[in-house]
Amino acid sequence: MGRPRTALLDRERITTTALELVDENGDFSVPRIARRLGVQTGSVYHHVDGRDGIVELLRERVSESIDTATLAAGPWDAALTAWARSYRAAFAAHPRAIPLLTTSPVRAPRVLDQYERAVTLLLDAGFALPDVMPLITGLENLVLGSALDLAAPETMWVPADETATPLLARALDAVPVGRADRAFDLALEGCVAHARAVLRDSLQERQEGQEGQEGQEGQEGP
User: Which CATH entry fits the domain spanning 67-212: 1.10.357.10, 1.10.10.10, 1.10.3720.10, 3.30.420.150?
Assistant: First the structure.
């Protein structure tokens, strides 16, 4: 038999198969990818840089669904909010990939480009450089936690005896439909509101420092 007209292996097929395994089991292995594709394990390694390389391919694949155009649309707070919603939706489609992807450093160039755009957005808005990554990291923690929450049951608290926790029981009865979405909206609004306060305080501090420097220079005179 000659070679097949269509290659049995390429990076796209490997990534698709790895993501299928992660969606099913929460993890993958190179031998399991090989078995599912009907090839030898060594053949997979000819196309990827080991397990870490596959993890980065998975990160790129999941992140493809994030609309990065939101980072260039509108004022910084609206842009950041839109990016967070798109980010959440992309990872909510593959919640079992979140623990895998959050326990290894981000190296995928196309994913790093998203962070570059987010950093540019915040610096252009006037945020101080030391404030930028804590804000992005905090937002990312919120987004990924909420993406996991979307995969959780609608009812997460089930008191065995409501008479022992009557206020909790009443609070749970009052929860409207869409618990995870409402919680995300509340947390995202709080995160962005805090970011606005950080930016306001930073700009005010810099302005006061500049005015103080100008005043000191004026007192010294020629």
Answer: 1.10.357.10
Q: What is the pLDDT of residues 194-216, one digit of tens each?
A: 999 999 999 998 888 776 676 66
Higher pLDDT, 32 or 215: 32
**Contact present, 20 and 62 (Cβ < 8 Å):** no
Helix, strand, coil % over all residues of the chain, rounded to 5: 70, 0, 30
pLDDT of residue 2: 46
Q: Are 175 and 147 in contact (CB under 8 A)?
A: no
b/e burial code for range 144-163 (CB count within 10 A of at least 16 → b) = bebbebbeeeeeeeeeeeee
